Amino acid sequence: MMGWFGRWIAAAVLWVAFTSMAGAETLASTVGQWGLLGSWAVDCGARPDRDKGALLTYEIRKDGRVMYRRNFGEARDENEVVSATVNAEGLLDVMVYFPALHQAREFGLLLQKDGSLRAIYNRSERGEYTIRDGKYVATGAPTPAQQRCD
Description:
The protein is of the alpha+beta class. The protein has 1 helix and 10 strands; from the N terminus they run H-E-E-E-E-E-E-E-E-E-E.
């Protein structure tokens, strides 16, 4: 009886480890195949600035985690991408956990025909939008296209 139980526990541990690795590989492959990896900015030649444009970088760490780094010039942070899926329209739906904000945010990104990237929506886990339908909620202005900087 103990031998059977020990084998069952070993199998369960292996299954959990395998599914965790498979999930990380799926996330990494999704963002990689979609074309998100690298650095993006509205103006790659400009110094990063909170008001004039940040440098946003998506990368895969050696441990397989997908990270989202934001460089605002005077401030920087690094946050983990916890999910990414491509919807039927080709929009990449990304969820990032921001420990400093104690929240996850979900945003939809569109890779345009010219290779630029545009934010179509950005919302909190409570459904509060800062960007909706490709426009800033506060001003109604369209989100700018971001260029790949690397």
